[in-house]
């Protein structure tokens, strides 16, 4: 895997090529001060001033009540944590909110390559669905995948002696779509030939995959030959697709052909050695979980103890607990407000 291949798999590189065959998305340049904030271990969240403009402000009595909740009752003789100013990005916040609203108010966020899939556990709804900049920041600052994008994008490249290409980091906002995990598949392409397909969510057993194996293989093969093959910048790459309930196939992501990309139910030795997988003449190898007996724990479980919580458990940074509780309370209030608005709008 070369550095050039990693560069070519950036979202802003492949999206214009396959725009008609993927989910509507918007790309915003990521300012340096935002990048610095994402890499700063000292703060967990930003202030709540980035809430969607469609939401209403709370009154003074609510603010006073919130202060009562957030400020511990401590005798005057004891010191308390001095208030810490959360970073503000007014211009960037405005652009993000405008983009979110133009995409329907709910988005799936990612950077040039990665989405914070290892951090969905920290969100209020255990989802990557984001409605505000604070939602996005919470996910990004809790994600090792995002940190990798920002600090080591060329870590496993074979041409380490060559200078690293300059990367212009970007925030990608994708229109939120309810994708059923059983419809996602990862496809491996070598020398512009589709050699392997793997169930994306291999930790679960989906009966419909077993029943529709040939239809799925055929649909993905047709999509590849009609829309992807020879259209990408490299001849070796990995692409993710989604097959919907009508049998239509949509492009979800593109990744480098190398160990930086999860090979799922295959091994990279199989995919690169020229063995049975790479030399099949009767179509791509297709692997999926065949029974509930083979169900496995999610690989993202290993990411669920972030550095921030380690700091809390050791008493190294109590500020992070305050920041975290403020954000969780804010998210809960947003959810309650949305439920109230939906009840008011419902027909009587």
What does this structure look like?
The chain is 37% helix and 14% strand. By secondary structure, it is of the alpha+beta class. The chain has 2 domains: 24-51 and 86-175 and 317-338, no CATH class; 181-302, 2-Layer Sandwich (D-amino Acid Aminotransferase, Chain A, domain 1), CATH 3.30.470. The chain has a 5-stranded mixed sheet with strand order 7-6-4-5-8. A 3-stranded antiparallel sheet has the order 1-3-2, covered by helices on one side. It is globular and about 60 Å long. It starts with a helix and ends with a helix.
| Overall helicity | 25-40%
Poorly predicted spans: 53-72
| Structure classification | alpha+beta
The number of domains: 2
Compute the gyration radius: what is it?
23 Å
The oligomeric state is single chain
Run of helices and strands:
HHEHHHEHHEEEHHEEHHEHH
Count the DSSP helices. 13
- Straight-line distance between termini: 60 Å
Q: What would you call the shape?
A: globular
For the largest beta-sheet, the strand count, sense and barrel status come to:
5 strands, mixed
Question: Which strand order does the major sheet show?
Answer: 7-6-4-5-8
Number of strands: 8
Strand content: 5-15%
Q: What's the overall average pLDDT, rounded? A: 82
GO molecular function: ATP binding; metal ion binding
Main location: cytoplasm
Pfam families: D123 (PF07065)
Protein name: Translation initiation factor eIF2 assembly protein
